[in-house]
Amino acid sequence: MDINLLPLELLQHIMSYLDYHTLKMASIVCHRWNKASELFIVRKGNLCITEATAHHLNDLQNCVREYQTIRIHRMDEWSTLQAVVTIFTQRFPRVRKLHLSGCLQDYLYRFYNTFRSWMEQCELIKVSIDDRFADHLLCGPEDFELSLPNLKHLVWHECLYGYGQKTVTINAPNMECVYIDDSLDASCVVRIPTSDRLKFVRCMFYTKHFDDTFIGSMPNVETLIMTIVYGNCDVGYLQSMHQLRYLSLSFGSAKTSLRNVEAMHDCDQLKVLSITIQDSNSEKGLLRLDKIFNNFIILETLELRTVEVHATGSVPAKHLEFLKLRDVTCSTSSMSVSAPQLKTLSVCWKTLRILELHECDHLKELFLDLESSGLKQSIEHIANFFVLNHKNLSKLVLFRSYQETAIEDDAWYASNDFGLENLELYNIDISINFFRMLSEWKSLKSIAIVRCTINCGAINGNDGAPATTNTVPLPNVARMKLDNVKLRGTTTRSIFPLQFGKVCEIDYTSNSSDLFYNTKHQFCNHDQRFSPFTNDRINYDYTFNPFTQDIIDPLSF
Predict the structure, then answer these.
(1) Cβ-count burial of 542 within 10 angstroms (0-12 exposed, 13-18 middle, 19+ buried)?
(2) Strand partners, 173
(3) Helix, strand, or coil here: 118?
């Protein structure tokens, strides 16, 4: 069927799924496509205004599209900012999103009072207050209010003020989502009165406390992501958040805070809990697992980092599906958990040695940080203890989170078939004999090797004698991913040491396809592309980002 025969409404529905750049390309195909895409271009696009805009006011007045998302970036002169925004209010009378970036400390007060009726329309406001000090600024009031009746989403980045106290109260009865980034200046505070509609809060506090900003109770908050940089803090207010479903807490130290979490007896809607102690040398406190699972009876995901736990007997975790433990110490000699719904386990090597899992018939994935243990030592432990007890395991991810702890591997491996389908290796030195063991794995279908080194110095057979071939066959592998893989122990090798079957999909990053063995990544942000410890199911799926098109209409900054 010809797409041009579709009704305009159906064509617009198709256009609604396209990203901004694709929409712009679609708009120049023909007049009909332009008409169908225009609404979404306006919603997803934004008009960015800088200091240079003041020299092109005529172009601004003649702008064709009715943009509803406005970005004003780092305009130092109030007179210039006022002149530009005055034209804005005339040319774009309907604004839904406003981003004030690099806003000087007293401009926000002036901006609101000068363009109040225009600003009050906004459904999303992002304010990045600049910490540049300007002597020529008029000192505004130390305490003022912003009334924003239509505001649903607020993103607030605080600054260091040059002088005086600043308390900004934002009255927004329809607020649903708040992002707060605190500053090191304890004298400046943004205050948000109680809002029954507020469901999402994400904040970072350096000097202030939660109740300095959020005044009153917040009974309907479902998602709370909070980082507290200073020391021990009282988070007793969590006990009143009975609708919490996603809770992520990061503390400087947490002795008092962990007791507050244990006291959340009425928060029985919680499905995801993440607790991180930022400083491994600080006071960790003690978290009792039995109390956690007694309080949060439908908890599905638990992540603990740098926390000391206490577990007496077998802790029942009936609904737990994803368990992540890193740098976790246990006050007892072992940690026993009964988790019949557990699907993914992500742990450090030292934690796996004391962890006892019971009734885990659904466990499919194991993410294991080798830490300072050798690859062979880890493999033997997994083979002898873990895989044999969890026969439904289909995916194994081995990695080292700290690359400076690289351990050279020249071991010989016994032919143990783990019965796995997927194997991923990250930041590890691997003996070629390890892959010789993999050649015996009949069910292995997929391998990923990322930022690893393969030791080709001595290729041995299963009996330990020198092998007669220079390559190791992996006949059953149907998919191979190679990224930044290096060889060592040889200076003459021109053939990649792994040999695949006839039908194998290979994904690799290399400067040249004929230098297949010398794969080098070409992404400067490589470390951000995959973090093995955080790449399983605990993420912010229960949250939303105010700048993604699938949550707050198809709009983005």
Answers:
(1) middle
(2) none
(3) helix
Give me 504's structure tokens. 């194998």
List the one residue out of 242, 279, 276, 244 whose CA is nearest residue 258. Answer: 276
What is the pLDDT at residue 497?
83
- Are the CB atoms for 269 and 243 separated by under 8 Å? yes
pLDDT at 539: 39
Taking 80 as the threshold, does the pLDDT of residue 276 lie above it?
yes
Task: Please determine, for residue 154, whether its predicted confidence score (pLDDT) is greater than 90.
Answer: yes
DSSP at 467: P
pTM to 2 decimal places: 0.80
Give the type of residue at 272.
V
Strand-strand pairing, 223-228 and 200-205: parallel
Query: Higher-confidence residue: 382 or 463?
Result: 382
The pLDDT assigned to 153 comes to: 93
Residues 6+ apart with CB under 8 A from 405: 371, 372
User: Where is 111: in which H helix or E strand?
Assistant: helix 107-114
d(CA 280, CA 309): 14
CA gap 14, 37 in Å, rounded? 9
Residue 517 has pLDDT above 80, yes or no: no
Backbone angles phi, psi at 177, to 5 degrees: -140, 135
Tokens coding 40: 């979404």
Q: What is the DSSP letter of 52?
A: G
pLDDT at 492 over 80: no
C-alpha distance from residue 513 to each of 339, 388, 509, 516 (Å): 46, 40, 9, 5
Q: How many angstroms separate the CA atoms of 11 and 425, rounded?
A: 45
How far apart are the C-alpha atoms of 302 and 30, rounded to whole Å?
Answer: 52
Q: Which residue has the tokens 């600043």?
A: 166
Compute the average pLDDT of residues 228-236: 77
Model confidence at 196, in pLDDT bands (50, 70, 90)?
confident
Please tell me the distance from the alpha carbon of residue 284 to that of residue 282, in angstroms, as a whole number: 6
| Whether pLDDT at 132 is above 70 | no
Q: Are 552 and 122 in contact (CB under 8 A)?
A: no
CA distance 147 to 179: 18
